[in-house]
Specification:
The structure is a single chain. This protein has 697 residues and is α+β, with helices and mostly antiparallel strands. It is built from 20 helices and 21 strands. It starts with 18 loop residues before the first strand and ends in a 10-residue tail after the last helix.
């Protein structure tokens, strides 16, 4: 626990102007981001007597080891910078909303030549216009099915579209009139885009004008005695009205507004948002958060607005936002919303009428969400805390291991040796910090050497990153030897950001390292850390056979009860690392076998192998290609093309394999023979390893 007075800024250092500030812990990780109209009084409030601080604020300032700030010109700039830093650093003491479920949206890919209507989840993409979110995907599909009669926009995937264009035959929707079939040229790209724009206009709430136009066209067709056309237009109007009826009418006028309601207690808060467009409820979504910082309802509303509209622009930001409490800097927030929309946005509390009644309904939804969430999470929070305490007690740790890293080795009979590192923080997986390693120094079934290499590489990177931040020196090594800071010949799959002074992911040390294995693997891990001079990280191993916990230097394992929550958490961490390693090993094996005979071509790397396979479609077609045709592949010169042709010509196809039960010849995609299924057990083991062989003991 740090003393806040040790890093308190000197009097007069803090400017009296708007700005954004960051608290960092001892590992230079940002743990809290905040903004203020005036930095001086706001930061000074954190360094008063600890007894006067809110418990969560007290925990934050005692966890921090430094504070820094950035001065901005206006409160709007401070709001935008605060949102950017929270998104970038993901501070543990800031309020972070998480969806209580994944909501689907109706999306139109306007960035494509032929826009496509589809259901989408997850983060929003450029060039795509979204409507919703909706409560259920089937609700979107029902709406789209009704509207395709009037707006026959493409809904097929890229593969189906290309296949239809190649064969000259549209899909079923094209035959029944629910797609304009741009794949076969029934409409031009301009005509199809006009259909997509009309679809978007209708979904955006501009429905009245379009329905009136259809009605006028229907009457004109009837007057000209074109009764079939009039009947079709009548049915189109009915389909659109049925689609509109699926959205509840809440306001008589064409109101565009978002209503945000909050339900909270001392520990958690639930936020519900209703999206109203054209007077109808078009979508609903909800968030739940732990109140890790001292924040009131106004603060929760401000955080919700940042997360809801931080990535939105234009019409996605409504004309009116109704909230239960105004943020502290309401004018600045309103200006920020107006800049994102491009016109004025009204941010207010509804006082009377239909809007106040709808806000009450949204608040009831938020309260119900919080009740359901607490019912599901109460036991989970208690269980995780108890599990960490049991692990600390069993391993003799001074405190609960809030960050656990687990390592596992995977290979297939000594080939494609890989390793995985998974991270759990506060008993929950931290997927953004998972890492994968390739073992390149040797090949073979030596899990002990592999474990030693992976731990060495991981913690050498930790020491290097720690040295870059000025927190580590040779004097701290204890051995007198200088740290090797030359380029690491590692193959971990991780993209480091630019060197901007922030510590990388490997700069965060765990309190506990778990290895998948028994006494030998634990000894290898301990030896790796000892060689690097690291003695403040605990190590244990979890053996699969009897689920025994091994500690370095101990002859007997620690046996946790089968009902122990601590054992269950260790098993979950170990199994997650094992699954992550298995997936990576299978991916590498699939890539290695995909090129087949091309592996024998000297000097031909994986990138050019994949380019050849992608260009010709298969090795069989590549074998029949001429040297000039091979030279057409990007990156392939004539000398390489001649070598490829010679190697493939010399690769004699194997003799046909025969199924002894049926007498049929077994062929692969190239027409080359495969090994017969009735092979002897040793041969069958060499061909394919059953799943249990991939598990590393």
């Amino acid at each position: 626990m740090a003393d806040p007075s040790s890093y308190r800024p000197k009097p007069g250092q803090i400017p009296d102007s708007p700005g954004v500030y960051k608290f960092r812990d001892e590992h230079r990780r940002v743990i809290y981001v905040g903004k203020a109209k005036s930095l001086r009084p706001r930061l000074s409030s954190y360094f008063q007597d600890l007894a006067n601080l809110h418990p969560r604020t007290r925990t934050m300032v005692t966890t921090a080891a430094s504070v820094e700030w950035t001065v901005v010109s206006t409160e709007v700039e401070a709001l935008q910078l605060e949102y950017s830093w929270i998104k970038e650093y993901d501070p543990r003491f800031n309020v972070k909303y998480r969806d209580d479920k994944s909501y689907p949206s109706l999306a139109v890919t306007l960035g494509e030549e032929f826009p496509r209507v589809q259901v989408m989840r997850g983060p929003k993409k450029k060039g795509v216009r979204y409507f919703g979110p909706y409560g259920h995907a089937w609700a979107i599909r029902e709406t789209v099915d009704l509207m395709l009669r009037v707006f026959p926009v493409r809904t097929c995937s890229a593969g189906v579209f290309k296949n239809a264009a190649r064969t000259g035959r549209p899909c079923l929707l094209g035959y029944i009139g629910k797609c304009s079939a741009p794949c076969v040229g029934r409409v031009t790209p301009e005509e199809h885009r006009e259909l997509a724009d009309e679809f978007c206009d209708f979904m955006a709430g501009r429905t009245g004008a379009y329905l009136r136009r259809l009605e006028r066209q229907m009457h004109e067709a009837a007057e000209e005695m074109e009764y079939e056309k009039a009947g079709r237009l009548r049915d189109d109007m009915e389909a659109l009205r049925r689609a509109l009826e699926k959205n509840a009418v809440v306001f008589n006028d064409a109101t565009d507004a978002d209503l945000i309601a909050v339900a909270e207690d001392e520990l958690e808060a639930a936020v519900q948002i209703f999206h109203v467009r054209g007077g109808r409820v078009r979508g609903q979504r909800g968030w739940v958060t732990d109140k890790v910082e001292a924040v009131d309802t106004a603060g929760l509303v401000e955080h919700a607005l940042q997360q809801l509209y931080g990535e939105e622009k234009g019409d996605a930001v409504p004309k009116e936002v109704l909230v239960p409490a105004l943020p502290e800097d309401a004018p600045a927030v309103s200006q920020w919303l107006a800049e994102r929309r491009g016109s004025n946005v009204s941010l207010r509390i509804p006082q009377r009428g239909d809007k106040k009644d709808l806000m009450a309904m949204v608040r009831r939804n938020a309260q119900q969400t919080l009740v359901l969430h607490k019912t599901k999470r109460a036991s989970d929070l208690t269980t995780r805390s108890r599990a960490l305490e049991e692990i600390a007690e069993a391993l003799g740790l001074d405190s609960a291991p809030l960050r656990i890293e687990c390592f596992d080795i995977s290979h297939l009979q000594g080939d494609d040796v890989v390793a995985s590192m998974v991270v759990f923080e506060d008993g929950l997986p931290r997927k953004s910090e998972y890492r994968r390693f390739q073992i390149k120094t040797f090949e073979g079934q030596d899990d002990v050497r592999s474990m030693h290499e992976v731990l060495t590489r991981r913690f050498r990177r930790y020491l290097q990153e720690k040295e870059k931040t000025g927190e580590w020196t040779e004097a701290e090594d204890g051995t007198g030897a200088s740290l090797d800071t030359t380029a690491e010949t590692s193959h971990e799959v991780a993209a480091d950001a630019e060197d901007d002074g922030r510590p990388k992911r490997f700069a965060y040390p765990p309190q506990l390292v778990v290895v998948d294995g028994g006494q030998p693997q634990v000894a290898a891990a301990r030896r790796a850390l000892d060689e690097l001079g690291i003695d403040d990280v605990a190590i244990c191993g979890l053996a699969k056979r009897l689920e025994e916990v091994w500690l370095p230097g101990e002859d007997d394992p620690v046996v946790l009860p089968r009902s122990s929550e601590g054992l269950y958490l260790l098993q979950r961490v170990r199994d997650t690392a094992h699954d992550f390693a298995i997936r990576y090993q299978r991916t590498k094996r699939a890539k290695r076998f995909k090129a087949g005979p091309l592996d024998a071509v000297p000097g031909l790397g994986d990138t050019r192998k994949q380019a050849l396979i992608k260009h010709f479609g298969s090795v069989k077609k590549l074998r029949s290609a001429t040297i000039e045709q091979i030279c057409e592949v990007p990156g392939i010169g004539r000398k390489t093309a001649e070598t490829v042709a010679v190697v493939l010509a010399q690769a004699a196809p194997a003799a046909p394999a025969v199924n002894m039960a049926t007498g049929e010849i077994i062929e692969d995609d190239e027409g080359a023979a495969q090994a017969a299924p009735a092979a002897s057990p040793p041969e069958r083991d060499q061909q394919e390893c059953p799943p249990e062989r991939e598990q590393q003991e």
